[in-house]
Amino acid sequence: MALMLNGMGVSRGVAIGPVFILHRNQPEIIEKEIDRKNVAAEVRRFKSAHSAARKQLLKVRDAIPEGSPEDISAFIETHILMLDDSMLSSTPGDLIKHHHCNAEWALKLQRDAIVKVFESMNDPYIATRRDDVYHVFDRVLQALASGGKNREIDDTVSWKDQIIVADDLTPADTVLMQHHGVAGFVTEMGGPLSHTAILARSLNIPAIVGLTEARRYLKAGEQLVVDGSCGLVLADPDDQTIDHFHKRQREIRRKARELVKLTDAKPRTKSGEKITLLANIEIDDDLKLLRKVNAAGVGLYRTEFLYMHRKDIPDEEEHYKTYLKVLRALRGAPLTIRTVDLGADKEVEPVYTGPLAHNPAMGLRGIRLCLNDPSLFVPQLRAILRASAKGPIKIMFPMLTTVPELLQAIQLLENTKDTLRSKGIKFDNKIQVGGMIEVPAAAISAAHFAEHLDFLSIGTNDLIQYTLAIDRIDDQVNYLYDPLNPAVLALIKIVIEAGLKRKIPVTMCGEMAGNSEYTRLLLGLGLRNFSMPPNSILEVKNVLRGTNIATIRRHALALLRYSDRNKQVDLMAKLNA
């Protein structure tokens, strides 16, 4: 009898193949006191392991085939940069000298301190980068345990057409396994924004994450079906079931070929409404993808990356040059820059020093942090304004909660404009200012915010989290993360109506906007501007072209009235029929 398991589908597609259980022996970290005369030798031991770990990553990077998706090399380069940073290349050595401890314990102390910083970042994408910290430090720890021997996949092992089942996968693991032709991934850890999920989507490898204790239930060598669209895992399926999923595979490949044909098609509904499809970007590779799918511009440019992996704060000139580079790449398309959305934690230095936040997600973060420290905020405002003289730029404030808070931010922006004018520095006098609506209080008060803004942007990732009081990257509670919760839909509807009444655009830039399952629902609620990861645009465009808004509005509005899951599923089926 087939065994059915459910995890979180993060990369669509169907994989069929035998199970390969990946076990890793994680080194146990125990604090040991090092005699003063042996400290120098322990530092050399650390440096030798660090060097071995770096050589391993360079080998992986150099083995990436030409023409591979940009995400692959980007992740590996990020890990190499982290290894090269003093936080990992020299600080553990300093800790060994200071505490007279073993290298493993020094690495643990430094790792835990850095992870604490990442966990204070409320942006889900950045918070999940803590996984990268674990993986890079683990690589050095493995090198310490093995005396510098390579921990990478053995080239003598055949991975072709197998489905890897593991606790988690590093970017290097993922790259090498793809190179070996794996069919799919199933991991016990991770979420939709984890590196495994992102790489799997980039590589078009069906993947399921967050399937707790998968290695306990699945057996090495048994036949497995992985459906990355719905998070379904079937172990030991019968021949009829396998035939069914082979047909699914062929249909998925056919649809992918059809989507590419829509690259130059206008994003319009079947009933003729023009819809704006923008892209969320953060790194240069996102810009390359944006051009491939002909996005109308950038609806969300995250700027937090400028502050990561460094000990100093980016100055005005660095901001300015970065924005000019993006503008040039967009070739006249609009760019919406979200001002920095960092978290609050004592360890976030030099960005912020203060008392330890009991709950960083609800502490001094986003616009709160910027208003608390204008020296952090003003250089970015100056750079955005200066860049606005070179191309179409909009500015967007994150984590708004109250109107007085918004007015304070606007006043600071106006003061910055006055300073630039007094010095004869050019900028767009009519630069549009928008606000992220991601706090329930702001959503309920959207009409008041709309009186002072040129546009609104719904950040569903945080809006859903705050409304439902859950952390979407916490494996223990992320099952409660539900975009269809009537309270969430009601808040989205309130924001859209506030924009319509004030006659200002409302965009959605959260993950919900890029999920084609919700496209018709959002259209029925009145949304006309979507911003999403570039690789979601063609699929959403395809849904638009088959949608008559008049016929789906009734079902969309009906979802606001039901909390029963069966009724919701029925209405969603009617919407997407």
Radius of gyration: 25 Å
Distance between the termini: 32 Å
Helix content: 40-55%
User: Per CATH, which architecture of the largest domain?
Assistant: Alpha-Beta Barrel
How would a crystallographer describe the biggest sheet?
Answer: 8 strands, mixed
Overall outline: globular
CATH fold-level name of the largest domain? TIM Barrel
Number of helices: 24
- The CATH H-level homologous superfamily of the largest domain: Phosphoenolpyruvate-binding domains
| Largest sheet: spatial strand order | 1-8-7-3-4-5-6-2
Strand residues, percent: 5-15%
Structural domain tally = 2
| The CATH class of the largest domain | Alpha Beta
Low-confidence stretches at least 5 residues in length (pLDDT < 50)?
A: 150-156, 344-349, 352-356
Structural class: alpha/beta
Query: What is the typical, i.e. mean, pLDDT?
Result: 86
